[in-house]
Amino acid sequence: MSLAIMTCLGVLLDTLFGEPRRAHPLVAFGRWASALERRFNPGGRGWRSHGLTAWCLAVLPWVMVSVMLVNIPYLGWMFEALALYLALGLKSLGEHATPIAQALRRNNLEVARRRVGYIVSRETSDLDETAVARAGTESVLENGSDAVFAALFWFALLGAPGVVLYRLANTLDAMWGYRNERFERFGWAAARIDDVLNYLPARLVALTYALLGNFSAAIHCWRTQAPLWDSPNAGPVMAAGAGALEVQLGGPARYQGELHDRPVLGLGRLPTAHSIDMALLMVRRGVVLWVVLIVIGGLLSA
């Protein structure tokens, strides 16, 4: 039951305060990870073994520290709630997504392009209104899985050590998990570990999206379209989310000057500002559903 209480408290802290504007622990972690990468991947020449060693040095000490902190009498519960709060990105997701929809409604395409560029890696300078809405909706669905639901999953499973493990691993994937000359070998471990940690949460998220939208369309898109996507976890999440919202996502997108012909996901209408709003609402409703289930589980196990 205490875990359920800490879950509620962590989500409440995120709802009230969002991400810390100053001195976020992930900023310091990013500096530490960059130093390790310079040491173990000089000039992009590091091998897979170097990447795995750097990953262990970057993540495991902090997981061990979190194990010790949660066992401190009377203070461990505070660290539990704080760890979840710092790992969640629900309010931040809304703070980034809502201005995109607002700019589209005001027909201010330049601002919409700039705002969506904050949260996607594709090139945005030439996107039209539909493409901006598509990028924003995709980002809400995928980041809802990575930055919100997966953190809740690992916290519910392993408490603060679990959410620390997940959040740091996910951060390293964002830093090292690229398929380019610099990180192809060195970043392999970071990318694969993140895939493993997200495998089950991503499928629970896909099911959550289906339950909160057009269920049959979501399941159909998940089953038929997700296998075509290059990411084993983003595919189910975005295909099910697009089907649940009855909107068309995916399709061609340009990354670092190279056009990627991505499969089409979902069905129905083209995305608009309303699609971004509905995707964000679906994520928020999903969080409520997960928290309720965690509380019920705590009550039944008490």
From TrEMBL:
One of its GO terms (cellular component) is plasma membrane. Its main location: membrane. It is found in: Cell membrane. One of its GO terms (molecular function) is ABC-type vitamin B12 transporter activity. The chain crosses the membrane at residues 52-70, 147-169, 279-300. Pathway: Cofactor biosynthesis; adenosylcobalamin biosynthesis. The keyword Transmembrane applies. InterPro entries: Cobalamin_biosynth_CobD/CbiB. Pfam families: CobD_Cbib. Keywords: Cell membrane, Cobalamin biosynthesis, Membrane, Transmembrane, Transmembrane helix. GO terms for biological process: cobalamin biosynthetic process. It is a multi-pass membrane protein. NCBIfam families: cobal_cbiB. Converts cobyric acid to cobinamide by the addition of aminopropanol on the F carboxylic group. Belongs to the CobD/CbiB family. This is Cobalamin biosynthesis protein CobD. It comes from Pseudomonas duriflava.
